[in-house]
Write a structure and sequence with these properties.
single chain, 90 residues, mainly alpha
Length: 90
């Protein structure tokens, strides 16, 4: 079985980095906080398996978050809520 290709976040613009750091420390929404931590860890050079181990999550989740962030930016971090309005915690 071949190892999945490494996925890393694109270069962050300074405003994104500042916002991600704030979200990763202050957000009350766990999913949003974790997604920001994943992107920041990738930006620091950590691989998907390393990030998954540290944050105790699935490697596929880490790769998905990074790919979505690369495609859609900060908007991709907000968890999708079904059936109710999301909390404004950004």
């Amino acid at each position: 079985m071949a190892r999945p290709a490494s996925v890393f976040v694109r270069e962050l613009v300074p405003e994104e980095a500042v916002k991600l750091r704030r979200i990763s420390r202050q957000s009350k929404v766990f999913a949003l906080r974790q997604r920001a931590q994943i992107v920041l860890a990738s930006d620091a050079g950590s691989s998907a398996p390393e990030i998954a181990r540290v944050l105790q999550t699935d490697e596929n989740q880490v790769r998905r978050v990074i790919r979505e962030f690369n495609a859609d930016g900060l908007g991709s971090l907000a968890p999708s809520y079904r059936g109710r309005a999301p909390e404004e915690d950004r």
